[in-house]
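CORE FACILITY INTAKE
Project code: CF-77B
Contact: R.S. (postdoc)
Sample description: multi-component assembly, two entities in total
Requested service: structural model of the whole complex
Turnaround: standard
Below are the sequence entries exactly as provided by the requester. Do not edit them.
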Amino acid sequence: MNPRTMVAGGLVLVIAIIMYGAARRSTALPGPTNSRQSRVAPDFELKTLDGRVVKLSDFHHKAVVLNFWATYCGPCRVEMPWLVDLYRQYRSQGLEIIGVSMDDDGEQQKVADFIREVGVNYTIVLGNHAVGDAYGGARFLPQTFLIDPNGHIAGSATGMKSKSDFEIAIKELLANAQ
Amino acid sequence: MKALFVLAISAIAVGTFAFPPTVNQQTRISQQKKGESPFVCDTMALTPEIRKRHFDVLGPMLVSMRTAVRELPNGYEFEFPNDERTYQLLTEWVFQESQCCPFFDLDVRLERERGALVMRATGREGTKAFIQNDAARWIQPVK
C-alpha cells in the first residue's frame, strides 16, 4: 500500500474515533427534541423532612424539574427563589419541582431552616449517595434534570442557570407534554 | 498530497454526518459557554468536617473580621487586619473556597509596609452578581 494512503487511512480512523467519542459524551445530556436519546429517569424513594416518603413515580404524568442542591452550595441557594417563583407560576399547568437535598448527614435542621427562610413551596426530599449515583453522581451542585410526563429525562444541566433559562426550559417541557 | 487532502476532507464530512454532535439538541438549560467553569459547588472537594468548619466557623468569623469592603467591576475586595492569625484563617478559607467553588478567582494580598491584608473575589461574567445574590453578609458595609 502507498505510504500516503496508509497515513490518510490512519487519519480517517483517528478523526472517526474522536468524533465518535464526542458524540458519546454529548448524549449524556439528552434534549427533549431527540426522544431517541432520552432515558428513563431512575425512580427513587426519599423522605421529606417530616418523614413522608416521596417516590419519583408518584409524579408520573407530570412535567418534573428535579433539582439536586445543598444548603452549603451558593449557586443552589441563588437558584431556589427562582424555582419558588416558577413553581407558583407553572404549577397549574402540570409542573412539579422536587428538590433533593444532598446535605451531609445530621444537617436536617439546617435544611429545614433554609427552606423556611426562602419560603420553598415545592417538595423537598433528603437525598443520599445512591440516588445521586443513579443520576450520574451529583458531584457538582446544583444539578437539574427535566423529566417529561412519560418519566424520561428530557434535559439536564450542571451548574447555576438564570431564571430565564429555567423558564424557557420549563415552558418547552410543558409544551412537549401537551 | 492531493489524495491525502481529499481523504482528510472526506473523513471529516463522513464523521460529521455519521456522529453528529448533540449539543445543539439539548434544551436551553443545558447550554454552557465553552471553556467556562459553570457556577457549581464541588461536593467532593471538602470532607463533611472541613465543610462544616468552612461554612459554619471560618466564613462567619472572617465576615466579622472585615475592616473594609470595596466593589470592583468584576467582584469585591475585602480588607482584614494584618496579623498572623487572620492571615492563617483567611488562607485556609480561601483554599477551601477555591476547591469548592472553582469559578472564583481568589487573591490574597499583603500590602507593603505592613499594610492591609486584602482578599479579592472576582471571576468571569456573572461572578459579581453571584456574590451580591449569595454573599450579602460579606458585602454589607463594615460598621
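Facility notes:
- Chain B has one domain: 35-139.
- The first strand of chain B starts at residue 41 and ends at 42.
Invoice: internal transfer
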